[in-house]
Structure formats: structure tokens, C-alpha cells
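Practice problem: predict the structure.
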Amino acid sequence: MRKLTLYALILGVIASMILPAAVLADAHNPCNPCNPCNPCNPCGAMKHFMINDPVGRNVFTFESKAPLEKIIGTTNKITGHLSVNLKDVTKGWKAMFTLDLASLDTGIALRDGHMRDNFLDTKQYPKATLTIDKITKVSHKMLMDMKPITVDAEGTLDLHGVKNKVKLEGIQVTYLKESADTKAKMDGDLLHIDGGFSIKLPDYNIKVPKMIVLKLDENIKIGVDLYGTTAAAMAANPCNPCGAKNPCNPCNPCNPCGAKNPCNPCNPCTGKANPCNPCNPCGK
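Answer:
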């Protein structure tokens, strides 16, 4: 009996020395939620921001500068989301913004009606969507608290039933950790996006009649001034460990469908040894 106890003790010591190394080695496993390269890692560098401010502090503008008239339209009805790697914004960046075109306001009701009915066809195309597909140039890769960086990017604008590539240059991006000062604006960590790009209306099958060509330029300058917040991000975050929005997400460690998910670390017994789970109680 004493020999067995001593033998078990020796095995326990050996196991305690080997297991940490095994777990560390498995940190490179793409299925391991502790993997620092895993975009679903809750402790990773990825931050998820939602854009949906009911108070209307986010602003979208368009500017038409024609010979006889300068028109500036604005709206605050913008929704969207951003995913940003704070350590390197060129990796893992995802962003999408949706604009309610019917809410654009130029300050003259009659002109707004003409714009909605005769140019934007908002009954058929009520929204425009901008996605930022990739970052092409940065002044600094890392986002640090209250230190703006300048970004050039390529994106896609879906407007009036047409999708075209757009280039965004000199966009200022600022990360703001939650503080007493930032909470006066909104809760959560914040990401401020400030900049713009230009489009041509004919590229989106929006024709400017000759009779008003002196009042409406086909070249339109678009500006965005947006704040995203992490306070609203968790509910819709596809990498949220317990996200009710996506319970069967394979990156979700609280996945209730875990019986079929071999990479779910909360799954107690997917098999005798779950190769993706370093802490699997059913493993060796």
C-alpha cells in the first residue's frame, strides 16, 4: 500500500511539471480560447465597438459644392459595429456602418423631399452601407489611450443599389478608455472615427438633371464623425463567450451546442480526449 501511495505521489509530481508545459504548448492551438492569436480570445487585443447612439451624437455629412449653391446635408441616424486589434490595427479590423438616407437633412424641407424622391429613391433604397475592408496605411499600428493615429483604408459603399470601392485617406482614429470624463459622453471604452471620402453620383446611377447642374455637383464629399462603444458590444459580439445572440458560435466557450463542438472548453466530455481543450476533464 505504501509503495502504491509513493508511486502515485511521484506520478503526481511529474504530471504537475509536465502539464503546464503542455498547456503552454497548446496556446498555439487555433482552437484554444487562451491562444493570443484567437480573435475570440476574451483576454486578447481585439475590442468590439457598437455604433448606435440614440442621442444623436454621431454625425454623417455630405457636401455638394456647385457654382450657384453649396449644399450640406446631415443625419444622426447611423448604426454599425467595429472590431479593432488594439496592438495592431492592420490585423483583424472589421467595420460596417449603415445610414438611414431618408433622414438626411439639408435645412430646406422642399429640397429634402426632392433629394429623397428624385435622386436617392429612398423608398426603393432606404439605406446606404459602408464597409471598411482593409487598412492600407497607418501612422502607428498600436492604439493607445487618447493618442490619435491616422489611417488610410479601402472600403465598399453600397448606395442606390450599386456597390463601388472607395478609398478613405487621413482618417483619424482615437481609442479612449472608459473614465469619468468619457462616461459624461457615453459608457464603455470608446473608439472615435473622424474623416471622410469622395464619390461621384453617376457612379451610383444617380443622375443630375442639366437644369440643376449649377446647384448640385456630381462630386460629393462625405464626412463621418462617429463614436463606437464597448458598452453595447457584448450582446451582439460574435466572439462573446456567453453571447445570447449566437449560442452555437464555434468560438463560444459557453456554447450550449458543445456536445458537437470539439473545440468547446466548456464541453466536459466530447470524447475521451478533446484535442482542442487543454483543460478537458475527460482528457489524459
